[in-house]
Amino acid sequence: MLQQPIERADEREHLPSLLAADADELVRRLQHHQKLTFPPAARKALRLFSPAEAAGFIGIGEGYLRQIAADGHGPAPQANGRRLYSIGDIEAIRRVLDDGGRAGKYVPHRRLGEKLQVISVMNFKGGSGKTTTSAHLAQYLALRGYRVLAIDLDPQASLTALFGHQPELDVGEGETLYGAIRYAEPRPVRDVVRATYMANLHLIPGNLELMEFEHETPKAMMGARTETIFFARLGEALAEIEADYDVVVIDCPPQLGYLTMSALCAATSVLITVHPQMLDVMSMAQFLSMTSELMAVVEKAGGRTDYDWMRYLVTRFEPNDGPQSQMTGFMRAIFGNRMLTNAMLKSTAISDAGVTKQTLYEIDRSQFIRGTYDRAMESLGLVNREIEEMLRGVWGRR
Question: I need a labelling partner for 387 at 20 to 30 A (CA). Which of 91, 272, 340, 396 fits?
């Protein structure tokens, strides 16, 4: 008969101590890796864009862009005679075109009577491409000339890292959105907004501090410590800076807490990312059910629950994968036009760029097999243009 080993007290593992030690070691190693791949003195930057890309962002033909360049607007030719455009060049050409008698056609800022668009990007399950979608959407809209604010509402702060800020090093106390919506001595939201390496794109970073809102809200609600209920605080903060932006993109946490419900109440539109596999879709079904029940309670308390649009976006899609195609068709049969027409393809270009905390708008095409990169960029462009068309539709623009 086998004897069970006797567990001695000094061999038992103390979970809090183990987790704390593992967290410290992991942070130390990540910081070392960060210094090797992205030194502290380094600054993120967009790559230069080809004439075709620049013309696409501006909204003109490539031939027209060449004519504008011949008139002395834009970058000087390189040694090989080719022109490459920075985001600054693209913005300057927009202004030149609008000064030429078409005011407001190429600089697409909000006009009188057009409301701020707030897009909350969400899902309950990690790995759905939520943060990647948020980052590329925010950058795309900025490249198109809109004034964009990206908000990292996820305590894991992947969006913050993707935009070049290390959450545990570069984001201090009170420097996340929590600093502006906390119940005790909130800061002006403008104090937590950061410029980025894109002139049209600003960021409110995140880190673990955001979890304090989840912990403090129940106490505030029980103690009636505040006149503003939790779900209205984010919207009130955005109202302070509304005039500065055209679009706000919020990367929500992957759980249904007070932060996510706040983002839903502040939103004018909702984008739900979903990976088309059975377990992910089953998880989303539970998420949708819980969200509907909680938002019904919020609605009774006065929260906003009507949106300009709500769409599902299929992400990490592999067209040659039979089960994925079947699941996508299954969802389209259920959700109809609430599904975006275009899906975001799974691509090694996106995942490889993420290893060095870059997006496809930052990383150079030469680092990939041309076909792989081009397919990813085409898919990305189709998705983002479809979303942009819905935004413009809300404003009554063609």
Answer: 91
Examine the pLDDT at 226 and tell me if it is beyond 70.
no
Both 84 and 161 in a single domain?
no
**Structure confidence by residue, pLDDT tens digits, 244-256:** 999 999 999 988 8
143, 166, 149: which is closest to 29 by C-alpha? 166
| 175 shares a domain with 88 | no
Residue corresponding to tokens 């623009």? 397
Q: Rounded to whole angstroms, what are the CA distances from 266 to 173, 201, 233, 263?
A: 24, 20, 9, 5
The pLDDT of residue 358 is 83
pLDDT digits (tens, 9 = 90+) for 169-197: 889 999 999 999 999 899 999 999 999 98
Q: Which residue from 301, 277, 261 is spatially nearest to 122, judged by alpha carbons?
A: 261
Report how many domains make up the chain: 2
Residues 333 and 371 in one domain: yes
Half-sphere exposure (CA, 13 Å, Cβ side) for 181? 29
The DSSP string of 153-192 is --TT-HHHHHTT--HHHH--TT-STHHHH-SSSPPPGGGG
**Same domain flag for 271 and 345:** yes
**Which of 1-5, 61-65, 246-250, 274-278 has the least mean pLDDT?**
1-5
Q: Are 181 and 70 in the same domain?
A: no
Give the SS3 label for residue 76: coil
Q: Over the stretch 256-297, which tens digit does the pLDDT of each residue have?
A: 889 998 999 999 999 999 888 888 887 778 777 877 787 787
What CATH number does residue 278 fall under?
3.40.50.300
The rounded Cα 230 to chain-centroid distance in angstroms is 23
| Residue 91: domain span | 51-99
In this structure, are 211 and 79 located in the same domain? no
Lowest mean pLDDT among 134-138, 288-292, 381-385: 288-292
- 124 and 267, same domain (yes or no): yes
Q: Are residues 69 and 122 in the same domain?
A: no
The C-alpha atoms of residue 332 and residue 339 are separated, in whole angstroms, by 6
Nearest to 152 by CA among 220, 214, 216, 202: 202
